Amino acid sequence: MNAIRKIGNLFSLFRQAFGEYAWSIALMAALNFLSGLLEGIGVTAIIPLFSFIGGATKANDTISLAIAELFRFLHLPYTAKFLLFFMVALFLSKAVFLFFSQQITAKIMADFEERTRSMLLRITFAARWPFLSSQKVGHLDQMLTTEVVASSSILYYLSGAALVSANLIIYSILVLNISTIIALLAFISGACIFFVFLPLLTKTKIVSIDMVRENKRLAHFANEHTIGAKTIKAMHLENQTLERGVTLLSLMRGLYLKTAFLRNISASLLHLASVFFVIGLFAFLYKTSAFEFASFAVVVYALNKVITNVQYAQNHAHTISSQIPYLQSVLSYRKEAETAAERDAGVLPFAFGKELLFRDVDFTYQRGEPALSSILLSIKKGEMVGLIGPSGSGKTTIVDLLLRLIEPEKGEIVLDGTPISHVRLKDWRARVGYMSQDVFLLNDTIENNIRFYSASVTKSDIENAAHAANILAFIQSLPDGFKTMVGERGVFLSVGQRQRIALSRVLARKPDVLILDEATSSLDTESETLIHESIERLHGEVTLIVIAHRLSTIMNADKVFVLEKGKIVEEGKPGVLLKQEDSRFAKFYKQQS
Ligand SMILES: Nc1ncnc2c1ncn2[C@@H]1O[C@H](COP(=O)(O)OP(=O)(O)OP(=O)(O)O)[C@@H](O)[C@H]1O
Ligand SMILES: [Mg+2]
């Protein structure tokens, strides 16, 4: 019962993963089956051939009679020579069928890999931010490389399984054609062996689940530590890091050995079982049979084939069992990512005429205390608004709500009276620019980093934006100008230069609203002044929402909001708040000067 349920589960898993290739798989299986069939008939033709050569009595088993009948039907002389041609033709066609079936397998695998990879990329980029932010670095990489390849190799082994089953059936028929008893014995032993070895297959799968997990951990380890390499070097922690990596590797080694042991023990046991079976059979035949030589040779050949194919089947089953967890991992990620798909219910275009308003907004992250509660804030078009407050007070959470990366748990955010969720997400994100402290640069040219996939951004937009971000003179001073490569994550540039390039990127898209989250916090005064000047130039043209630790950055703001523990505790014009001795703003100011 259990075995049947397992097979059922397996079937539904394969249908889910490979369902769209059902017809190609059927064709592949049919071709494999045909090639097995042709080989089987070719081999059987040995019986009449031998009886011709030996001049013995005419073979009178079913297949030999059928071949004789076929020759009569085709009006071909039933002679040794023509029988030989017939066999050659059979083996040749078998080779042709096998070639086509292998080509089809390769095509299905290539299609599967391409489609699965593009599906993985698509659903990943389409997922909501909270889902994406919880993904570990290296896992997607691991899925795209190892897991997809392991999954598609299942197709290869399934194709092999079609050939193996065809061979098994054909050779069993061959044996059956000559001796019912031997066929029955072989079938019963085969079935017993299958059930005896089933637990080993299950064990293989369990070990393989651990292997999938460890592979992911290794990818995560490598990626995480590549990103953090500078810190590791600077702290001289190479050895400790290595030690952790090596622990992982030795764990993987153990798992590999376990899988190999299970596979090898199965193969050896099977081998032993076959030897006993063949010896038993010989003893049986020796006592009871009165076979003619030709039939006897074919039975031995066919039995040998049956056993070899059972061994193949066993080996394939082990490999498939060990690859299934990779496929399951891909499918379960697909399910999670699809459930986490970002949905856009917005149908309205972005139109900002007057005011952007937070109405009583609450937000709590999955674990922990409310990050924001009862937030009321109003931002008028063209204003520059400052958000200040201690670390962890909820400033970035407000930004993420504005970027629609997360949604309010209670209350709403409205733009000129329209809930922002009614605005098309694509339009929203095109109109709302964002820049944070951790700049993301591609290992590409400065120009491509500013254009950043936006086909609508022209060369002059790029130059104007670079000018507005106070980086044009620097870029022009470089030998390769805008064509200068920035290095991996921008390492060829200083942090201040990277930030001004990131600012140019946002400005080149000419946003209506620009959000700067601690954009200048890590800069020296000179770099900050440069960005400051750019912001000042935008003041009045673009609605600015600026988060800054340094109050100097927002002294020119039209309004500041002071946040504390997720609540707005103060708001007003910086100059006015500064004059009120007991205001929090004034206290912050004193602390900083
Ligand atoms: N992804 C998250 N999951 C769980 N809690 C989070 C998450 N992001 C932020 N928090 C928590 O929410 C609160 C507000 O965080 P937020 O990042 O908005 O603060 P912040 O004002 O921007 O701080 P900082 O000035 O240090 O950047 C903090 O207590 C933080 O621990
Ligand atoms: Mg923050």
Distance separating the two termini? 78 Å
Strand count, sense and barrel status of the largest sheet are:
6 strands, mixed
Structure class: alpha/beta
Percent of residues in beta strands?
A: 5-15%
Level-2 CATH architecture of the largest domain: Up-down Bundle
CATH uppermost class of the largest domain: Mainly Alpha
- CATH superfamily placement of the largest domain: ABC transporter type 1, transmembrane domain
CATH topology of the largest domain: ABC transporter transmembrane region fold
Number of domains: 2
Tell me which ligands are bound: adenosine-5'-triphosphate, magnesium ion
Order of secondary-structure elements: HHHHHHHHHHHEEEHEEHEHHHHEHEEEHH
Mean pLDDT: 87
Number of helices: 20
The global form is elongated
Subcellular location: Cell membrane
GO molecular function: ABC-type transporter activity; ATP binding; ATP hydrolysis activity; ATPase-coupled lipid transmembrane transporter activity
Domain ABC transmembrane type-1: 26-322
Keywords: ATP-binding, Membrane, Nucleotide-binding, Transmembrane, Transmembrane helix
Topology:
Layout: H1 2-18, H2 22-44, H3 46-53, H4 62-73, H5 80-125, H6 129-133, H7 139-178, H8 180-227, H9 229-234, H10 238-288, H11 293-339, E1 355-364, E2 370-380, E3 384-388, H12 395-402, E4 410-415, E5 418-419, H13 425-431, E6 432-436, H14 446-451, H15 459-468, H16 472-477, H17 495-508, E7 513-517, H18 525-538, E8 543-547, E9 559-564, E10 567-572, H19 574-579, H20 584-592
Parallel strand pairs: 3-8, 3-9, 6-7, 7-8
Antiparallel strand pairs: 1-2, 1-4, 4-5, 9-10
Helix pairs in contact: 2-5, 2-7, 3-5, 5-7, 5-11, 7-8, 7-11, 8-10, 8-11, 10-11, 15-17
Bound molecules: adenosine-5'-triphosphate and magnesium ion.
The site of adenosine-5'-triphosphate has 11 residues, from helix 12.
